[in-house]
Automatic annotation (TrEMBL), chain A:
<keyword id="KW-0143">Chaperone</keyword>
<keyword id="KW-1015">Disulfide bond</keyword>
<keyword id="KW-0999">Mitochondrion inner membrane</keyword>
<comment type="subunit">
    <text>Heterohexamer.</text>
</comment>
<dbReference type="InterPro" id="IPR004217">
    <property type="entry name" value="Tim10-like"/>
</dbReference>
<comment type="function">
    <text>Mitochondrial intermembrane chaperone that participates in the import and insertion of some multi-pass transmembrane proteins into the mitochondrial inner membrane. Also required for the transfer of beta-barrel precursors from the TOM complex to the sorting and assembly machinery (SAM complex) of the outer membrane. Acts as a chaperone-like protein that protects the hydrophobic precursors from aggregation and guide them through the mitochondrial intermembrane space.</text>
</comment>
<dbReference type="InterPro" id="IPR035427">
    <property type="entry name" value="Tim10-like_dom_sf"/>
</dbReference>
<dbReference type="Pfam" id="PF02953">
    <property type="entry name" value="zf-Tim10_DDP"/>
</dbReference>
<keyword id="KW-0472">Membrane</keyword>
TrEMBL record, chain B:
<protein>
    <recommendedName>
        <fullName>Mitochondrial import inner membrane translocase subunit</fullName>
    </recommendedName>
</protein>
<comment type="subunit">
    <text>Heterohexamer; composed of 3 copies of TIM8 and 3 copies of TIM13, named soluble 70 kDa complex. Associates with the TIM22 complex, whose core is composed of TIM22.</text>
</comment>
<keyword id="KW-1015">Disulfide bond</keyword>
<dbReference type="GO" id="GO:0046872">
    <property type="term" value="F:metal ion binding"/>
</dbReference>
<keyword id="KW-0811">Translocation</keyword>
<keyword id="KW-0862">Zinc</keyword>
<dbReference type="GO" id="GO:0005743">
    <property type="term" value="C:mitochondrial inner membrane"/>
</dbReference>
<keyword id="KW-0813">Transport</keyword>
<dbReference type="GO" id="GO:0045039">
    <property type="term" value="P:protein insertion into mitochondrial inner membrane"/>
</dbReference>
């Protein structure tokens, strides 16, 4: 069986899936880093405080909202 | 990529697609783990070792241990918040 991706649809599908997975992992990693810095104001405890937990659960979505605002506002300033 | 050690094919033969996929997944998983560990090093040093002394105190050690747990938990929270279909 020819293992080169060009002739192997299964391998091609696999590579696309892995690429998607890597991109998703990278997005999560970056946002976790940003949100950790934003939300944890003191040394880590044995669990998150209610405010830390709340901050973390909102952080990623608010970051995405903010991205949209930036994109829209740069488009309108042409 | 270097040699395909996971399933040694005979000299001159190409690795099977299955072996190739396995190797790719293993390398990606390893790269992911390395990056996560490096990030936790930075975050936990920052939060827990505020003033490096002549050795790691037990307080600093337990802080680092909690830090790793919390960082992994935070990763899960962010991941679910980005990729689950639930409303927030």
């Amino acid at each position: 069986m020819d293992p080169s991706a060009a002739n192997n649809p299964e391998l091609l599908r696999f590579l696309n899936e892995e690429e998607q997975r890597v991109m998703m992992n990278e997005a999560v990693a970056k946002l976790t880093s940003v949100c950790w810095d934003k939300c944890l104001t003191s040394a880590p405890g044995s669990k998150f405080s209610p405010s830390e937990y709340s901050c973390l659960t909102h952080c990623a979505k608010r970051y995405a909202d903010m991205s949209m605002v930036i994109i829209r506002s740069t488009q309108s300033k042409k | 990529m270097d040699s395909y050690s996971s399933s040694s094919p005979p000299m001159g033969a190409s690795p099977s697609p299955e072996a190739l996929m396995e190797q790719i997944q293993a390398q990606l998983a390893e790269a992911y783990a390395k990056e996560l560990i490096e990030t936790m090093r930075e975050k936990c040093f920052d939060k827990c070792i505020t003033k490096p002394g002549s050795s790691l105190s037990s307080g600093e050690s337990s802080c680092v241990s909690r830090c790793v747990d919390r960082y992994l938990e935070a990763t899960g929270i962010i991941s679910r918040s980005l990729f689950s279909q639930q409303r927030h």
